[in-house]
Amino acid sequence: MATQQNTFRAKFGDFLADFSSFELRKHGTRLKLQDQPFQILKVLVERPGELITREELCRRLWPDSTFVDFDAGLNAAVRRLRDALCDSAEEPRYIETVPRHGYRFIAPVEILPDSPATLPGELPAQRVHENVATDSLVTEQQAQVFADLKAELPPFLQTPRGVWTRSLLVACVLLLVLGLGAIVLRPKVLAKHSGEGSTYSLAVLPFQNLSGDPAEEFFADGMTDALITNLAQSNALKVISSTSSIRYKNANKGLSDIGRELKVGLILEGSVARSGSHVRVSAQLVDAGRDEHLWARQYDRDLRDVLQLQDEIASAVALEVTGKLTSLQHRYISTRSQRVNPAAYEAYLKGEYFLDKWSADSFDKAKTYFQQSIDLDPNFAEAYAGLAEYYGILAFTGTAPARDAWLKSEDLLSRALQKDDSSSKAHNLLGMIKFQFRCDGAGAKKELDYALQINPGDMRALSYHSYYLLETGHVDEAIAEKKTVLAHDPLSVITNAELGLYFIHAGRADEAISQLGKALELDPNYAPAHMRLGFAYSLKKDYEQAVVEMQKAIALDKSPMRLAHLGEVYALWGKKQEALRTIAELRRMSDKKRVTPSMIALVYAQLGNGAAAVKWLKKAKPEDEPTVSDPGFEALHSDPQFKVLEARLRPASGCPAF
Question: What is the largest CA-CA distance in the chain?
Answer without folding.
Answer: 112
